[in-house]
Write a structure and sequence with these properties.
With 398 residues, the protein is of the alpha+beta class. Helix content is 33%, strand content 26%. It binds flavin-adenine dinucleotide.
Length: 398
């Protein structure tokens, strides 16, 4: 039984169903339509889609491709991550709305009779018997539903109800910040770069979404209340000051209703599992948006969990040791990625001290500008992560 039909829950559901394990996925929303979510499909995830035999069909869905990520420094565009030398078949990030990705995974999983997706089913509690988690209690439009299960997987995201109800302890790191997301139209003459327009004025992210720009404006935690107080015109000026787009374009932000606020935090569970339950993806570790790695780590968790758990689930011999093995496998890449994100944030914070009066780019961007080969290393860490996971052969067919 899997809580949450996000990237982690649906990929795990697909892999388990494909291997003949009965799966139920419960999702609280009625559909996959969410704006301003993780929309970056990295080379590691594209490789998983290839290993599943789905890549050609998947890449026929509308998307834009970024073979490298750029930033502006001192008026010059520099490559901060280059994917061209990665040892995989698709050496680019595919930007694709998350709802298309999720709908694709759900449709593939639903071709298996042993896969069931229940939409509008909100996890309310875990069922516990003698210290072991035995299932979930769900709220649906038709009333309460209780589902018993050999294993519960918490894939219900950064505000996981499963982890809270199961009493799993969370550790938080760094100072939370916030990102104000908004859309601006794309017009002829706009910059070509995707992601990380980082200097000379920092804290502004520009993601090419085909016919529009998804823009992220990084602010101090709780600063949004002050910004709102100053009014929309003042906000437009602040964005115009850091954006490479013409100031007139800011009129497209009609009111604060056109923005969406994301609290950026980095946390992880002290232990990802207890008897009968394991958490993966954001439910086990919320990442900072730096590098856009959240979706891809969630997918890698799902692949690793499937590789380790399929045999014990099929043979009805699941033990705590199997759950601990999943955490052991994914713990290192999670810790390493979070450590790197914290280091990059602190170099950015130092530069952004004094309320953005310091116009220098963050330290890691200055480093890459001096040693361009580092862009390949950054490409590897962003594109593949610290530990890539592969779909194990012989565990089902599509
Ligand atoms: C604004 C924003 C921008 C981001 N940008 C990027 C990016 O560019 N690249 C990137 O890789 N990552 C990005 N991320 C992070 C990325 O979206 C997450 O890391 C990724 O989606 C995690 O996948 P997941 O499956 O673990 O959790 P989620 O995607 O959060 O999925 C959890 C699912 O569980 C469901 N759920 C929650 N509670 C319950 C419940 N009680 N009962 C039933 N279902 C429930 C949710 O509705 C959701 O469908 C961004 C996140 C945000 C919020």
């Amino acid at each position: 039984m899997i809580a949450g039909a996000g990237p982690a829950g649906l990929m795990l559901g697909l892999l388990l169903a494909r291997a003949g394990v009965d799966v139920v996925v419960a999702e609280k929303h009625a559909d996959f339509l969410r704006d301003f979510r993780g929309d970056t499909i990295h080379p590691s995830t594209l490789e998983v889609m290839h290993e599943l035999g789905l890549i050609d069909e998947f890449l026929r869905l509308p998307h834009t491709r970024a073979p490298k990520l750029s930033a502006e420094m001192g008026g010059k565009t520099i490559t901060i991550a280059d994917f061209s030398r990665l040892p995989v078949r698709n050496r680019f990030i595919a930007f694709m709305p998350q709802w298309d990705f999720l709908s694709f995974l759900a449709a593939k999983a639903q071709t298996y009779p042993n896969f069931r997706l229940i939409m509008q089913a909100k996890v309310a509690d875990v069922l516990e018997e003698q210290g072991v988690i035995r299932g979930l209690s769900l709220e649906t439009p038709k009333g309460k539903l209780t589902i018993h299960s050999t294993l519960v997987v918490g894939a219900d995201g950064r505000n996981s109800v499963v982890r809270e109800k199961a009493g799993l302890e969370v550790e938080s790191f760094g100072i939370p910040s916030e990102v104000v997301w908004m859309k601006l139209s794309k017009q002829p003459g706009d910059p070509n770069e995707v992601m990380g327009h980082a200097g000379p004025r920092q804290g502004f992210v520009l993601i090419d979404r085909g016919d529009y720009w998804q823009c992220g404006y990084v602010i101090r935690r709780t600063a949004f209340a002050e910004i709102r107080e100053k009014g929309i015109e003042a906000f437009r000026r602040m964005v115009a000051d850091v954006s490479p787009l013409p100031a007139a374009r800011m009129q497209e932000i009609r009111s604060f209703e056109d923005t969406s606020l994301l609290t950026v935090r980095i946390d992880r569970l002290k232990q990802w599992w207890r008897s009968g339950l394991i958490c993966i993806g954001d439910a086990a570790h919320a990442m900072s948006p730096i590098g856009g790695v959240g979706v891809n780590l969630a997918i890698q968790d799902a692949v690793a969990a499937a590789n380790i758990l399929i045999a014990p689930l099929r043979e009805k011999r699941l033990t705590d040791g199997d759950l601990a093995a999943v955490e052991k496998r994914r713990g290192f890449p999670t810790r390493a990625t979070q450590k790197l994100q914290l280091m990059m944030r602190s170099s950015r914070r130092t530069d952004q001290a004094d309320d953005r009066k310091s116009k220098g780019p963050p330290g890691f961007i200055r480093g890459i500008a001096r040693f361009p080969l580092l862009a390949h290393l950054a490409g590897r860490l962003i594109g593949l992560g610290f530990r890539m996971e592969h779909v194990r052969a012989g565990q089902g067919n599509l």
